[in-house]
Amino acid sequence: MSLLFAMFSFSLAMSISPGPVNMVILSSGANYGVRKTFSFVSGGTIGFTSLLLFIGLGFYKVIDLYPLLLKYLAISGSLFIVYMGYLIASSKPKLDINEQNLPTFMQGFLLQWLNPKAWIASVSGVSLFSVPENNQVFLTFLLIYFLVCYLSLFSWSVLGDKVTILLSNQLRLNLFNQLMGGLLIVTACFLLYSQFN
After folding, report:
1. Strand, coil or helix: what is 91?
2. Which DSSP state fits 58?
3. Using an 8 Å Cβ cutoff, are 87 and 24 in contact?
4. How far apart are CA 128 and CA 125, in angstroms?
5. Does the predicted TM-score (pTM) go above 0.90?
6. Cα-based distances in Å from 83 to 9, 90, 174, 184
7. Mean pLDDT across the stretch 5-16?
8. What is the mean pLDDT of residues 85-100?
9. Which H or E element spans position 151?
10. b vs e for 45-83, b when ≥16 Cβ sit within 10 Å of the residue's Cβ?
11. d(Cα 20, Cα 18) in Å, to the nearest integer?
12. What share of the chain is helix, strand, coil (3-state, %, to 5)?
């Protein structure tokens, strides 16, 4: 029972804490609502779970052999996060927004695979909850993480949707989009900076 609690706690801490994916979901929830953000939430959850599975099936051994691989992934991921931040910050401050800028399933999926936080969470999770002679432990962890991640990301979309009460005019919505996009870009710059220091 304590192992299940540890798996749940780890999954919750890593999924609910602010990060690039959660910021995009918050912004999308505020701009488009929960229902239209659900595709991105699903992409983020499935993207992360597939990354966790990929690492759990042995890719961490490749990372041990080629440590620069994580550095290159962090750089490309940071650039993708800057791009997502730009899209959010430059989105039109309309309350009736066209769906052309709506974050997609594929963007959520890719953002997880290019997100340094997701890689760190996956490698840490595999090292903590993977037993070589017992795949059942890892599969249990994978299932718990999937459920907790889905609920956590979904809660960010609900929070974004509820924030619209404060964003009832175009000026406030524009400022919110610029703030969220700016936070994503600052996060990406910090990740890039940390790769070179």
Report:
1. coil
2. I
3. no
4. 5
5. no
6. 31, 11, 18, 9
7. 90
8. 64
9. helix 135-163
10. bbbbbbbbbebbeebbeeeeeeeeebeebbbebbebbbe
11. 7
12. 85, 0, 15
SS3 165: coil
Reading the block at residue 6, the tokens are 């540890």
For the segment 162-196, what is each residue's pLDDT rounded down to a tens digit? 887 777 777 877 888 888 888 888 877 876 777 67
3-class SS of residue 134: strand
Query: What pLDDT is stored for residue 97 in this prediction?
Result: 45
State yes or no: pLDDT of 44 exceeds 90: yes
Burial class for 44, CB neighbours closer than 10 Å (0-12, 13-18, 19+): buried
- Residue 163: partners with Cβ closer than 8 Å, 6 or more residues away: 26, 29, 30, 176
Whether 91 and 31 have beta carbons less than 8 Å apart is answered as yes
| Spatial distance between the Cα atoms of 34 and 160, rounded to a whole number of angstroms | 8
